[in-house]
Amino acid sequence: MIRQKYGYFARKMKIGLGSGRARILTLFVLYTLGLWASLWLAYKLRFDFDVPASLMEDFCKAGFLVVAIKLACLLGFRQFAGLLSYFSTPDLAKLFYALSVGAGTIAMVRYSAGIEYAPPRGIILLDLVISFLGLSAMRLVLRLYRERQVDPSLRGRSALRVGIVGAGDVGASLAKELMIKRGLGLSPVVFFDDDSTKWHSRVHGLPVAGAPEVLLEPNRNLGLDEVIIAMPSASAKRIGEIVRILNRTRLKYQTVPSIHQLATGQVRVSQLRSVDIEDLLGRDPVELETDNIRQMIHDRVILVTGAGGSIGSELCRQIVIFNPALVILVDQSEVQLFPIEQELIELGYKGNILPLVADILDGDRMRFIFDRFHPQVLFHAAAHKHVPMMESQPSEAFKNNSMGTARLAEMALAAGIERFVMISTDKAINPTNVMGASKRLAEIYLQALAARNPDRTKIMAVRFGNVLGSSGSVVPIFHRQIAAGGPVKVTHPDVTRYFMTIPEAVGLVLQSAAQGQGGEIFVLDMGQPIKIVDLARQMIELSGFKPDEDIAIEFVGLRPGEKLYEELSYKGENVTPTNHPKIMRFISEPQALEDVQSRFDELSKVMHQVEPAQLKLLLQKAVPEYKPYLV
To answer: How many domains does the chain have?
Structure first.
């Protein structure tokens, strides 16, 4: 709803002021009229509205000179490039600089070039002040006009009465913006806050009624239509409690963007969104040692395989922030590659990225990419990861996840790539499915290859569990089931999984890559495991329904290859600390490279000639801890 309103305002102002040449012409006319008026007023004020006749005779010639110089300065400071009705502090500063440079130029013209009809210094100074105030006022009035425009769909309707949870800086900023932008159709009337010292005080003239729990008091009738949660730094536990309160009151609710988005300036505080499951399962923000990451990425060529996937695309988003020379986005699917390419272009990174359609199993294609672009760091996120799908076709899991990783690592080693980082999974620990076993076999190969070549490419893997919202994860599946009216299908009442957000996982992958020395398997701190049935109940509640009443939960049994719970390490791996509290390093004795290669050769010869169950048994020989599901 909010996005639609913003889109309407943007379209209205773009049409109203034109675009391209029409917009520039409009700006030229308005600036010209404003500058002539300010110069005329400067003359009048300087001489108390009794300008000597000799000076008035030179006014027209002086006006052409002054206006021409100032227009040139405005053009030089890009004051013709933006939409006229969008005016902020940076625009104000540029306007001041442009007019100041113009005033200085006019003074030089008079006293250095000796042009007598140029204005005297008193008028030059007055004109600077008046023109700055006048043009600023004009821009501000147009901005206020735009902000107070009402969406046609809201005309004739009263604004929604809104309560804001959080009377801190974010909540205060939100209230102020909503009061200014009345066209959004939201009118803040009251604050709620956990801080008792703020109760019964006022913020921007609005009362702080107390903690959010006062909404449950039967004698409190605030007449609210909606509530906005403006606590981006609050704990997930507290957000969950507030959501449960709002669900009981049957009030609609939204939340402000995350603290990361607000801090980086990606969005405005009034760009509201629904409360997502990530808000209720989130953890404390991850502190990254960005100096190490920047040193690894800055001004270097980085290659990301599987760049169109959930993890690969987020890797690209975070990598470009550190100003690499080039990020090569490799994916075999152009459909997946196109959206992340367009997103990065819109963010201004067109000159820093290169999308390439390529399959990691195509050795000739990958060698050409290595020889042509000379990547220095490679993040390998390409993989088949859907557990049930791979169970029925283990040859594809082995070919892509195991063999593809091995061949890619060998090519990286031959090309002299400095770091090779594979994205692994907690399903590789004591695997019960083909996907996990194929990933574990890839880890074994990488460790053997790193041990054989300790002074060359630093080869490592990073394991983590489920990431919220990734392709194939349970969250989008539950969303679809809830939208269809249920039932929400859960495999088993006791099944648990580790969860983390995609940005958190990728940030820790970068941190691991920066500190790896080769041969390690890094494991990310996944926090506490979460019951999938609890996740389902929370998602049903976030959708405004009651679990087991409005939306049923149905238990359908574990799928082939699934565990009740996941593990983070297996017997034989030694845990050593790292310099980051959320990253652990597991080190195990590497196997002989020749032995691992012989198992790969054996599997590759028969992978398309035997039945799935037979291939699983052969895979078990290569990964003894693998307990295959056989039918």
So the answer is: 3
